[in-house]
Amino acid sequence: MNWSDFGERNKRLNPLWSLGAGMNLGELQPYKEMLALSVLLQVYYLELESSEQRTREDIADLAWSSLERFHIAGLGTPESVERLVDGLLWSGSGGDFEAFYYDDATRQMTVQKYKYFSVDEDATRSSWEETGKTVYRLSEYAMELIFMSHEIIEEFQISIKLLEIQMHIKHGRVTRAMQDVNELVTRVRKMTQQQQEYRNALRRNPKHMFSGYGVLRHQRLEEIHLQFDEERKHFDNIHRSLARLANDEKDVIDFNELRQLSERVELSRRVHDELAGVVLSIFEAETNLRLNFPELFWGAAGFNFRTNVWEEWIKPEGLPDADSLELLISGLFTPNQDFIYPLAWAWEEQEVGFLPEEFLDGPDEAGEEEKPPYTPKSIPWPQVTGLWLPVFLGLADTGSFTFSAEAFTEEEQRNWSAAPDAIDLWAQFFHTEISVQAEDTDSQGGAADECQKLIQLLLAARPELEVLRGKVLRTMIRSGHSHPVSWPGLEMSPYTITIVER
Question: Global pTM?
Fold first, then answer.
């Protein structure tokens, strides 16, 4: 067996295997992979139409439309749809998805990082000015999933694809031609995206022109120039074939389908023009940098600590351990460390001072004193849950609770003042909506971990709080009370925690 390409096969299939993994969608659980793929496919067609309705809220609406189309809308809830959308935008830790694959070159397991969505920078720039929302687009990995579902090869050359479209039109296969035009638009948009990423990187740092990123871009540029030479001829032939098909086969071909195909071909021409515009703007920027700012590319004379050590080594890679910092900068202060005041002496003087001379040469009969083991600070949950219990009892009884002097006795006020960990949880509740878990499960990470821990401990201790399961809690500053709550040793805002009705 040839194992040389096994890792690449593994990397291409990892996003497919992980699609929908880790999501808890309740009654929608059996359909999570199908729903996730349907959302990706709908965003794919929105990109084809150049629609910018691809914000997080728009993606949630697409998920609801899939539920309605599959006749399972009754099984969905706002919480499950939000979990579906969040599970596609981010991993459980809030960042990239990760999976292992075997790298045959290094002969070891390697971590692959990927996303299904990335930020559409150009669309987001205008969206932030109008609505303040982020616009997303499919990543290369998600595009490949769409391609795999249609058995489309990613590296299919555009010129060959144009020729295939022309042959489909010539033989009257309008539906196949429509599919191929859509695939062609996607291919060109992907090339445009790659060029835009290089243009943005070039604006941030002109040295990208000579980096591996820039070299790879210039390799793609040759492919783009060859395509520009051929596309005009292909598009002219396609339009002539469409006109001939409309005249010769007008009794056989559906005119509406032919019109839609003509519109898609015109869209394909426009995205080709957009790609050409991006390439020309990059060429103009590179020429301007070379002619007007040649000093940006001059080689630095000699060795520079900031560039060669800090920017090129420490900043991207970090230090292996804390002791390396002393080794690194001691030479800056004491080049001849053996003779002129090593930096370690200066640090020792600041921390413990110099020992008297009579003790320097004496043996250490007692030996070194063992340092006590480090114990990380933790939250005293029994004390915190005891203070928060009246809050949640009042919340379960009336639907809200306000932190005020009237709500606690003098002894309880003193206990609150002496428990900063309990006070800090009010601020954590204030920054986000907290969903009380319907079942006893561990928190999945994020800003609400300690809040969820508190809630689970209270629910486990008091059965009457079970009415809060599945509810959404929100904390705000109580309106009409501008003065903070002032107790001995404590001053804070009058927070009110309520149950949010959906």
Answer: 0.39
